[in-house]
Structures are given as C-alpha cells and as structure tokens.
Amino acid sequence: MRRRSVGLLMAAALVAPTTAAVPAEAHGSTKRVVGYYTNWSGYGRNFLVSDLVKNGSAARLTQINYAFGFVDAQGNCLSSDPWADYQRPFTAEQSVNGKADEPGQVLNGNLNQLKQLKQKYPKLRISISLGGWTGSAHFSDAALTPASRTAHVKSCLDLWLKGNLPGLPAGAAKGIFTGIDLDWEWPASEGNPGNVIRPEDKQNFTALVHEYRKQLDRLPGRHDLTAFLPANPAMIDRGFEVRQLFKDLTFGTTQGYDYHGPWETLTNQQSAIDGPAGDPTTPEFSSQVTIDAYLARGAPRSKLVMGVPFYSHGWTGVTDVNHGLFQPSTGPAPSTFDAGTEDYRYLKAQLANYTVYRDNRAGFAWLFDGTTFWTWDDPVEMKRKAQYISHRDLGGAMIWSLDGDTGNGELISALHRNLR
C-alpha cells in the first residue's frame, strides 16, 4: 500500500550516467525530520519498530507518524489492524528493549514497541495518523456538523491519546501518542473510489482542525496537530483554507511525490524539485510548484514540511528513446509487493541491472535498462532535496515511508545531515 493520489487526479537536461553515493554518517539538524511508520510494515516487508533503532532512523527523527487509524461510518475512530497495533507479541530479538513480550501482558503490538522507542528516545514525538488513501471514506461525514466534529474528535482522543483500546484496561496505551496527524485524502476531491465528498468539505475541514486544536489544548501537556496536504494547486483551492488551517496546525506536510506514476502510460518523474524540460504533460507538477502554492496561500515557511519518497514508481515495455524518459510503456513494472511501485531497499539490490540518469537542473533521477524505467530517489537525490528545503528555509522533511530505507539507513542519513 502506497499513497497514490496526485497522478490519479492530475495530469531534461541529461547528465552522464552515475552511481555516486553519499556517505552515511549523521549530522545535526534544526529542521523537523518526520517519518511515517505503517502498521503493515511488519508483515511482508518484515520492517519492525526495532529496525528504526538498528538502521539509525530513530536517532535522526524528530517525529513518527504511525499510520493509519481509520474513521468509521459513524465518525468514530478505530484501529485498522488491532493485531498489528496492540495484540501481536514480539520476541526478544524483535523488540526495541531486547525483552520478549510475556504471556498475558496488557499491551503488545506496535504500540508497545513505540512505547519502548519513546523510552529510548525521550525527545521523539509520535502521532497517530488518521485516514490515508484507504481510510478517508467517512471524514466528510465526521466533519459535517459541530456535533459530529465534537463527537469524532472526542472518540479519537479517547482511543489513541488516552489509550482506551477495545478489550484492554482503561488507559492501557496512554501517553504513547503525543499528537494527531490528519490524512484526509481529500476534502472536496475524490480520492479512493467510494469516499464521501462534499463541496463544503473545505470549510468543514478548517472547523474540524479547529475542534481538534481545542480538545487537544484541554489535555495536560503539549500535543501536536499536523495534516498531510496535497500537491495539486487545484485540489488545494478546492479543499483547504490554507491560512486559517495553519493557525491551528503545529505544521503541515506536503505531498512531495506521486506527481506521475504507472497509472499513466507515459514514463515521467514522480518527485522532481522543478519541472523538467521536455515534459510533454501539462500542467507542471513539482515540489517547487507545490511549495510556492502553499506559501502564496499563507502557509508559514517554518510550518511547511516537504514530503520525500523512500520508494520508486516503474513502467515496463518502455520505448528505448531519451533513456526511457517521457516514453510510452506497456504497463507497470513488476515489483515485490505492488506492481509499479518498489521500496528503495529492494530496488537498490537490483541496481547492477540498470543505468542511473540524473537531471541536475530539474532535480530528479531515474533508472533504465532499455525496457524498464524506475524513478529513483537515492542518497544523492535526498541530499538535493534537503538542500532545497534548507535553501527555502522550510520547516523540514517528511518521509513516506520509513520501511523503504536500507539496513544502514542511508536515505535518512543523507537527508538528515544535509538539512540546515
């Protein structure tokens, strides 16, 4: 499961091939480094919370967004996977603290592992992320009226922040989450087929965010409120009152990927900093376009966190012209989990089969072997993105998703040490 939304809803100056890498040592940063950890990471990918310690990610992150909690048809919050979230036992080898979960203990699963992670890294903030591509069907209903908003927020804070999980003693998971991350995909715009959408979602989302802020502020301590925001300027205008939203948000994360993908037949970039020369598609979609759109609509630079991908999109049956860029294909490239999408760590293992190409002006890279084309965000491109974030004095970087990195954390290392 990956985010797929910009390319579904919106429609180069080449340099010599290179396989240059960036060293993996860490460096200090004053910027936010936010990473999504998903509750399905521990299944086929076998990427556990403890792997965030082993590959150095936890030491470099300022915040983890745990994805995803869902919203039901009545507007209440619920766990999308109770087994992964709080029931699965972990062995000593799998756990953060090196101790096996014991039979009969109150809290298991990823939440207990996140609790251990916070004990090891007390400055780390952890938010529960609500919605996502497959979990946003009922946000519009939850946000519809003052009463529905009040009830929805109360339900979510009770479940996730107060830790009152079904079947467990009251407060069993209290204190694990220090905030809420809203991933409504998307207010007033169709996301996953079947989502409820209304024209008034725009105003209702602002009101929902404000209700979250009010109820969070009544809780003891400091609590974060963040939102994942779309890249498409037309979707921004349709669903988001940017200036008002950022008054209540701790920060907002922008979609810095999925500008193009294998839902289109033509190969293209998915996360370019600027629009590449020769792109036959219109309008232009790039990080520059997205960041400029939010700044122009009143988002504070310090609260604008730019998304970066730890995965690639791919096409096969690609015409061998222009090193595969902007060429027709026969369909998505075969991959480990989802056709046309591959985690960085799995694609890197196949790197010997490809040539790396970079567009240094537009700021993106890709792989091509004569028939299969992959977008490519490696340490070189992470450094480039970090330097762009720093140059524009933005609030930091957000990663989708942490399970895509290598065992030595080379992507997050390159990103982190180049943020200033």
From TrEMBL:
Residues 31-420 form the GH18 domain. It is an enzyme of class 3 (hydrolase). It comes from the Bacteria. GO terms for biological process: carbohydrate metabolic process; chitin catabolic process. SMART domains: Glyco_18. The keyword Signal applies. Its EC number is 3.2.1.14. The keyword Signal applies. Keywords: Carbohydrate metabolism, Chitin degradation, Hydrolase, Polysaccharide degradation, Signal. It catalyses: Random endo-hydrolysis of N-acetyl-beta-D-glucosaminide (1->4)-beta-linkages in chitin and chitodextrins. InterPro entries: Chitinase_II/V-like_cat (IPR011583), Chitinase_insertion_sf (IPR029070), GH (IPR017853), Glyco_hydro18_cat (IPR001223), Glycosyl_Hydrlase_18 (IPR050314). GO terms for molecular function: chitin binding; endochitinase activity. Residues 1-20 form the signal peptide. This is chitinase.
